UniProtKB/TrEMBL annotation:
It is a multi-pass membrane protein. Its main location: membrane. It comes from [Myrmecia] bisecta. The keyword Ribonucleoprotein does not apply. The keyword Membrane applies. PANTHER family: GEO07735P1-RELATED, GEO07735P1-RELATED-RELATED. This is Transmembrane protein 216. The lineage of its organism: Eukaryota, Viridiplantae, Chlorophyta, core chlorophytes, Trebouxiophyceae. Pfam families: Transmemb_17 (PF09799). It is found in: Membrane. It comes from the Eukaryota. GO terms for biological process: non-motile cilium assembly.
Length: 146
């Protein structure tokens, strides 16, 4: 190999995963704003038990703590071709899956718009998880070869 030439190494980052992280982040903003509006509507229009309303309303703000960190770690792991941040991103997906499932079927009142919003959120999260697993495996196997 001549001086100044780098060894050709394939790029392992996943463009589909990065696209899902990007649009998933925008979907999360839309989801959060619409879910907040729906909760305000439900608080005024429906006979909500106050203890249930407080807990379910608080969960929306917990979503704001977990999801940006998950998206950041996943995107960083993908861009730097490191499996570690991607694995942490996948671990942070577990409480979000529970969140979406709870809001999809277990909350006090589930409106049709919430079924759509939470179903789409689960779809984004599921696709991100599947592609993250394959991407992390490719990063891990490439690091073992080098």
């Amino acid at each position: 190999m001549a001086v100044g030439q780098a060894r050709a190494r394939p790029v392992l980052t996943s463009l589909p995963l990065e696209i899902l992280f990007y649009f998933g982040g925008w979907y999360d903003v839309l989801f959060w704003l619409l879910e907040l509006a729906v909760f305000i509507y439900k608080g005024y229009a429906l006979p909500y038990p106050s203890s249930n309303f407080a807990v379910e309303f608080t969960f929306i703000f917990l979503f704001l703590l977990i999801e940006p960190a998950r998206l950041f770690l996943g995107s960083k792991g993908n861009k730097t071709e490191r499996a570690g941040p991607l694995v942490f991103s996948m671990l942070l997906a577990a409480p979000l899956i529970a969140f979406f499932v709870y809001y999809l079927i277990r909350q006090t009142y589930v409106l049709k718009i919430e079924q759509f919003l939470n179903g789409a959120g689960l779809a984004f999260l599921g696709l991100q998880l599947v592609i993250s697993m394959f991407t992390a495996l490719s990063f891990w196997s490439a690091s073992k070869v080098l």
